[in-house]
Amino acid sequence: MAPLLDVRNLTKKFGGLTAVNNVTIGIEPQSISAIIGPNGAGKTTLFNLLTGIYKPDTGTMVFDGHSLVGLRPDQVNAAGMSRTFQSIRLFHGMTVLENVMVGMHSRLNISLFNTLTRTAGFNRQEVHVKQKASDLLRFVGLAGKGDEVSRNLPYGDQRRVEIARALASDPKLILLDEPTAGMNPQETVDAMALFRRVRDELGVTVVLIEHDMRVVMGISEHISVLDYGQKIAEGTPDEIRSNPRVIEAYLGRRAAGVVEPETSAEVN
Amino acid sequence: MAVKSVQQSSRATVRAALKRPAVAGGLLVAYILVAVLILNSLDRSNLWFPFYSTLTFPALVLSPFIILAAPVRGWFKGALIVALLFLIIPYLGMRDSSYLELVIQICIFAGLALGLNIVVGFAGLLDLGYIAFFAVGAYTWAMFTSGASTVFNINGWLVSGSAFYLFIFLGIFVAAIVGILLGLPVLRLRGDYLAIVTLGFGEMIRVIANNLDQPINFTNGSQGLFGVGRPPVPFFLRDGVLTVESALGLSITNVDPLSQQLLFYFIAIAIIGIIIVVARRLDNSPIGRAWTAIREDEVAAIAMGVPLVRMKLLAFATGASFAGAIGVIYAAKQTFVSPESFSLIQSISILAMVIVGGMGGIRGTLLGAVIVTMLNLLVLKNLSLQINALRNVDFVIPIINYHIRDWPTQLEPAKYERLIFGLLLIVMMIFRPAGLLPEPRRRMELQEKDEEIVDEEISPEAGDEQPVVSAVRPDAEQA
């Protein structure tokens, strides 16, 4: 099957620093994939490139048959790719329900005339938006919390709201940036079940950046490893677990046994 | 102890009684009646007139906010406010047209504050040059009706006063276009930078108005446009005034100016009503939610599909269009427009209204407009008048034996305007940073709550998740 997201030779430099260096990644539809790597490996930069927050220097990104290069973040969202943020970026002063309703923006018919005259179509759409936002909150396990101001929710619940908000635009693919960071073990376990349900029940392809290896190895079918902006390995969890370059990146060269950097560079 | 508990229980009884619609409604009616009776009996020749009217008129003008907050039925609130706006204030205005003038000024500033609230309160774009859009509206009408604009005069572009209502729409349109033209280059900036650029823009419009008398005279420069046209007074309004005059036995000497003033009062009330409806509908819509999202977190908003530039331009254009409409009315009411009316201090006082009232809330913004305008135009002015009146009769404060005429003229309250503004803002920032009436988030999920709680109890979700967990853990440990 053709990949849903096809990234080829993507490069992004910030001054002298090459944050993402010639990265090629393919994401299969309906899969759960993980992107891992040490701190500063360029994972979040990659997400920001995909979602249009940064512009790539070179390379191509094709999503669902359309190029993402040059699209604004809102256009990327409308094209069917949604995301969450590493540090939670909810609209803190708005209620939980309103947060999710904002997430539907790119799917709505918005006209000043309809808003001011309150046409039947406008009212129908508002009812639909509220209903769908409630349904999504129930899906992520926050039924009945819609009227809380989102700043007042516990941390784990805020993560869930972010996921519900990202799902509100009916994306084909959702990018989760460290979705379990700061969660306790039980919350992490619940979150993993949620990611699976996002894929199994909604049919949304999931790509996550994650540091927690239990999460990565537990739910992802495909893993890409970044280090210093380059992809150093990819494969199934079993392949990654035994890959000496990955062990080296995470634990240092001695732990991995001596591997010549030149040899492994050819992998790319 | 026994006394205390009795006190407590009686206090609770009073509180419970106040919550009952009949009691609260009775108190409201009594409150308004007392204010009206006092204002009705006040006489300008009374030595203490400025003092009493400073106490009573604000009480009357603030009563809609008390009415709205009171625990009474909706229809009763509506009836009281309609009576206040369409019977009581016009009646008081017939006795003393300065009250009418004051309410019109309040409406003008309230309209401006509501427009600025769209930009600053809803969308979070700090605009310090907002008065420029007001100027655009005012000059749009003034140039077409004042003969002082030579180009328009010579070319025969002048229109009659009856085109006024059409020009309200034109004012809206022109101001919105100017809003978009300003917005396009400026909206990439954020926060302080946006504030500085809009401040510059506000000054630019004023300077342009000041200098556009050469080489072609559009604005008549710093002398301003005088003799601006006014909408014709419909015959029924003048007849109505005469009928009321004979029915109540009033003696109105200046029927024509008064009916003109009444016309502006009703126009101002109507436009404020429309602006409130528009602002509420925008707030409670996908557009309003997108604006709030932009205010809270721009990056998250755009990543969630909110087109930043388009929504910001819409906010700018909407806010500007309110100011444009109000500008047309202002020009017609004053019959004189000059660059001095559109100075930076005006932009700042409108911003102060939004901040004092409660940024983002419509009722709060209205309250802020009422308070700040009354402080400016009624309270400080009347205190000065009072001091002068007392000085003239050589009033002596008993006990401390202080002669009012010794009070230096430099210390007249009307000269403290900016000092009082500053103090007011500082006090607000310390004690009520969210404003007097901060807007609570709307509750929208209420009707579904019960059903959802039941669902949660039945749902086997938690049970189902367990196996997944144990399947994951051993893997993870190996890694």
Descriptors:
heterodimer, A: 268 residues, alpha/beta, Rossmann fold, 2 domains, 6-stranded mixed beta sheet, 4-stranded antiparallel beta sheet, 22% strand, B: mainly alpha, ABC transporter involved in vitamin B12 uptake, BtuC, two-stranded antiparallel sheet, two-stranded antiparallel ribbon, disordered C terminus
How is this structure best described in words?
With 268 residues, chain A is α/β, with parallel strands linked by helices. Chain A has two domains: 178 residues, P-loop containing nucleotide triphosphate hydrolases (Rossmann fold); 77 residues, no CATH class. Chain A is 40% helix and 22% strand. In chain A, the strands form two sheets. In chain A, strands 6-7-8-3-9-10 form a six-stranded mixed sheet, with helices on both faces. A four-stranded antiparallel sheet of chain A has the order 2-1-4-5, covered by helices on one side. The longest helix of chain A has 20 residues. Chain B has 479 residues and is an all-alpha fold. Chain B folds into three domains: 95 residues, no CATH class; 277 residues, ABC transporter involved in vitamin B12 uptake, BtuC; 27 residues, no CATH class. Chain B contains 20 helices and four strands. In chain B, the strands form two sheets. A two-stranded antiparallel ribbon of chain B has the order 1-2. Chain B has a two-stranded antiparallel sheet with strand order 3-4. In chain B, helix 3 packs antiparallel against helix 17. The N and C termini of chain B lie far apart (70 Å). The interface between A and B is large, with 63 and 48 residues.
